[in-house]
Amino acid sequence: MANDSLVLNETLFDLDEESENAGEDECEGIDGCFEDIPVPPQAYYAFFGFSSFLITFGNLLVVIAILRNKKLRSSATNTLIVCLAFSDLFIGILYCPFQVVNMVLGGVQLRESYLCRGYVIFIRMSFTATTMSLLAIAVDRYRAIVQPMQPRISLTQARYISIAVWIVSFIFNSNVFVSYRIVTETWQENGQNVSHEVCDVPYYLVHIEYRMKIVYIVAIYLVPLVVLSTLYARMIITLYSGKSINDESRRRKRKAIKMLIVVVIMYALCWGPYRVHQVLYAYDESWFTDSYFILTVISFIFISNSFVNPIIYAFCNRNFRDEFILILSCGAIRPPAKSARQYSSKFTKSTEAAESSIASKGVELQETKQYTDMAKILEVEEGGNVSEYENPVSKEGAEHVENNVQCATISDVELVHTSDDTDAQHLTSAIGTQTTLG
What we know:
By secondary structure, this protein is mostly helical.
């Protein structure tokens, strides 16, 4: 019998090899498929099962937190984050479980063409949407940090962007409806012809699929990697060159810079091996391997991005963490809230430091509408402005800021903002919350 258990792997890895030599490698029983793995098959099942749990649990928690919390739901950045969470969630629900079923049953057969095409395009759409969501979040952060005086992405715009991400992902992968179908593979076994139906690309369309792989790799990995690297490099330079008011600001800035670097490195490392494998195989089929151990390692590195994303973009955000505590404890545990006095003290100290720094340099009033230390951007519900509450010492002012402040990008920075009125020389310094990446 041919190596049926490679059927789904070939589909998911886009390894649509012609089936002339399909019968050369046999799996005699389930354990026969794992001869090259130096660990028991059960470890393989546990790996994909645990990966599926991590991806599903982490991203589902993010989605629930945003849907049930009005404050989180009103943030444009969080709208993009939930789009990212949905794309990663589908990977945890579809990709990983099917890999386990593939190993246990010796191959998953999608015998109807519509199931075959639907499954493949949905998997590819999820991977594409993940990349596009990462780009959208990067652009939002770039505008907030490097171009702070430019209008931020609104909540409505973020929703349109999220919808566009999935529409573009569908269009970009629509070639699946032409390429993939149920094909019959035939080979010789014990002197007899053996046929097997699989979800694959017919041999006469393989050359088109190879070209699409190259386009896919360039458009969904290389170009996004260059764009992400460029945007985050500009952000890091801006953060690094900004002057810090105090030691706490410098600490927060260093933390923000490290997290920005982590974002780019994780994307490059997680997606790199998989994409390199595809490039090599597209040019030379001898690069294809049916080693389950190698495919497992490549697959693990690839899908690890889907459970790392919630950690980078949500779990490190204090607002998200507080909501997670409420969800997991069923409301029994409520995170402690900062008092109005704490906020008032931060406002007063930051304002005095900013006023002193600006006055000593003779900066004009209009020129003070910029960031003195770029490590976090403040986002207020309904387009509100922190400067509207110029007396944060009052309980009402402090509570309003506490209830409305949303961490939209990088954490912990002081924002210096002044009123447009010529007689308004009051500087308001924004609060730095205990978050990292929003």
